[in-house]
Amino acid sequence: MRGAVAFSESIISILFTLSITAANAGKHHFREAPKFYNSPKCPSIHYTTTPATGAAAAEARICSDNAVHVAMTLDASYLRGSMAAILSVLQHSSCPENIIFHFVASAAANTSHLKLTIANAFPYLQFNIYPFDDSAVAGLISTSIRAALDCPLNYARNYLAELLPKCVQKAVYLDSDLVLVDDISKLAATPLGNEAVLAAPEYCNANFTSYFTLTFWSNPSLSLTFANRKPCYFNTGVMVIDLERWRAGDYTTKIVEWMELQKRMRIYELGSLPPFLLVFAGNIAPVDHQWNQHGLGGDNFRGLCRDLHPGPVSLLHWSGKGKPWARLDANRPCPLDALWAPYDLLQTPYLLDS
Ligand SMILES: *[C@@H]1O[C@H](CO)[C@@H](O)[C@H](O)[C@H]1NC(C)=O
Ligand SMILES: *[C@@H]1O[C@H](CO)[C@@H](O)[C@H](O)[C@H]1NC(C)=O
């Protein structure tokens, strides 16, 4: 019952958030995005039997089968990226009013402030913010080659099934350093088949060996994890997650178990990705590569500019060290950063104080 109470409280907080008018949103000033409307063909996410307003209506909307759920993290350093990502999702959607955003933020962050910032920039957005207890995961993190990958919030994607309301059966998880240039409902509709828990673009030519240490490969009880599987690399920045199957299989615990092992014996070098590969690689549903044109941030060591992979583009992902907002501010953009700039909602990009 406690869960139900927390759920309706959070619904009420959405309603309050949406009625808050412009107030001091702090040091980041984002301009207000336009309102985006459903095309006439869109299914309704309102149930006719529930009231049009109030907490019951908000809950009915969240639980509607016609809603598209998008999960992202929110933190101060990537906020500008998140705002651009949200705008890009709405702008390219044919049913933007059916999209419900689920934001995970550090429990230590000022959630009211984040709510205000989002609501000011997107007054019509349906969203909820879930405080994430960083300390729970902080003890599980071992240092990786890039400090940003060690941020506890980076691991929040592992806890979505617990954080989001139980009636949400499926969600698209998106990193904050990307923009969509296509309709997210196509990605959300990826068939997961009879068994897959998640769907993502797979890269079977990547050298899988290099994601794990010699300690891992030389220990048969560990390396046998991949026996009878054709493990392929996938990037965890864009995933369609079947939250019902995730909950049923308790995959959060399975991932945490690998993280606990990593603390005791180093079996991989990167941050949150390898446990996902250990649990899911070879068993995911495929998504066309156009939905994650990744690596645009450049390599982790020299920050060189990268080009698009051949083929169509539905989503541009600045994974890697360089972020387009930082390079644009520094007046040293990579050519493809020009594709991110139109989604930048920051009002005074050159007065950023951190
Ligand atoms: C949190 O943010 C709200 C809204 O911006 C603000 O009124 C409040 O003072 C902030 N609280 C703290 C502890 O900074
Ligand atoms: C894959 O990576 C491993 C270790 O990093 C290396 O020893 C091996 O030669 C690589 N295989 C190929 C086909 O490049």
In short, what is this structure?
The chain is an alpha/beta fold.
3D architecture notes:
- With 354 residues, the protein is an alpha/beta fold.
- It has a domain at 45-289: Spore Coat Polysaccharide Biosynthesis Protein SpsA, Chain A, CATH 3.90.550.10.
- The chain is 30% helix and 13% strand.
- It contains 13 helices and eleven strands.
- The strands form three sheets. It has a seven-stranded mixed beta sheet. A two-stranded antiparallel sheet has the order 5-11.
- Helix 1 (2-19) crosses helix 2.
- It is globular, with a radius of gyration of 20 Å.
- The model is unreliable at 1-26 (pLDDT under 50).
- One 2-acetamido-2-deoxy-beta-D-glucopyranose binds next to helix 4.
- Belongs to the glycosyltransferase 8 family.
- One of its GO terms (cellular component) is endomembrane system.
- Residues 1-25 form the signal peptide.
- This is Hexosyltransferase.
- It is a single-pass type II membrane protein.
Note the main attributes of this structure.
Spore Coat Polysaccharide Biosynthesis Protein SpsA, Chain A; binds 2-acetamido-2-deoxy-beta-D-glucopyranose; single chain; alpha/beta; 11 strands; 30% helix; 354 residues; 13% strand
- Poorly predicted segments: 1-26
**What is the share of helical residues?**
25-40%
Remind me, CATH topology of the domain at 45-289? Spore Coat Polysaccharide Biosynthesis Protein SpsA, Chain A
Helical/strand content category:
alpha/beta
**How many β-strand runs?**
11
In CATH, the architecture of the domain at 45-289 is Alpha-Beta Complex
Average pLDDT score? 86
Please give the count of helices.
13
In whole angstroms, how far apart are the ends?
42 Å
User: What summary fits the major beta sheet?
Assistant: 7 strands, mixed
What share of residues are in beta strands?
5-15%
Family: Belongs to the glycosyltransferase 8 family.
Organism: Abeliophyllum distichum
Main location: membrane
Signal peptide: 1-25
